[in-house]
Design brief:
There is one protein chain. The protein is built from three helices and seven strands; from the N terminus they run H-E-E-E-E-H-E-E-E-H. It is of the alpha+beta class and 139 residues long. It has a single domain, classed as Nucleoside Triphosphate Pyrophosphohydrolase, CATH 3.90.79. The strands form two sheets. A four-stranded mixed beta sheet has the order 4-1-6-5. It has a three-stranded antiparallel beta sheet with strand order 3-2-7, with no helix packed on it. A hairpin with a 4-residue loop joins strand 5 and strand 6. The longest helix has 13 residues. It is globular. The protein starts with a helix and ends in a 6-residue tail after the last helix. Bound molecules: 8-OXO-2'-deoxyguanosine-5'-triphosphate. 8-OXO-2'-deoxyguanosine-5'-triphosphate binds next to strand 1, strand 4 and strand 6. It catalyses: 8-oxo-GTP + H2O = 8-oxo-GMP + diphosphate + H(+); 8-oxo-dGTP + H2O = 8-oxo-dGMP + diphosphate + H(+).
Amino acid sequence: MSETLSTPIDVAVGILMKPNGDVLLGQRPDGKPYAGYWEFPGGKVEAGEAIIDALKREFVEELGVEVVSAEPWCGIEHVYPHAHVRLHFYISQHWLGEPQSLENQAFAWQGSVGVEPLLPATIPLIEWLDKLRYPTASV
Ligand SMILES: Nc1nc2c([nH]c(=O)n2[C@H]2C[C@H](O)[C@@H](COP(=O)(O)OP(=O)(O)OP(=O)(O)O)O2)c(=O)[nH]1
């Protein structure tokens, strides 16, 4: 494995969650690896940047949304053909502004997630998320 692929890249990912449990997903734009796949909004952490600051920056750049507070939720490491990523997932229930598509991405609020395909590393998150947001539902 090359040095580039073996060195993990930190990625800050945010799950905006409405009081009814709906979460916001975005579709990766043309020109990026896995274009057309659905993901939670976010992006790479820049050198010297705190993960929470990267999260807030990406939400302003991609969605025009100010994340007021977000709780760290879980971390996932995944090796893709294009990159080795370390994903830091946050859940936010407190943000300002209506999400707008500022980088030509499609976005969708989802209850039970009906969009596909999802990025491979994000797939297991959906089941964990459902346990969190629908705790009394039978499995
Ligand atoms: N935002 C996001 N990225 C994810 C998720 N799941 C997952 O495997 N990833 C991976 C895909 C990419 O390899 C990486 C995010 O990098 P990116 O290329 O989208 O980041 P970026 O917006 O900063 O991109 P750029 O500046 O390089 O254009 O994390 C997810 O749910 N959300």
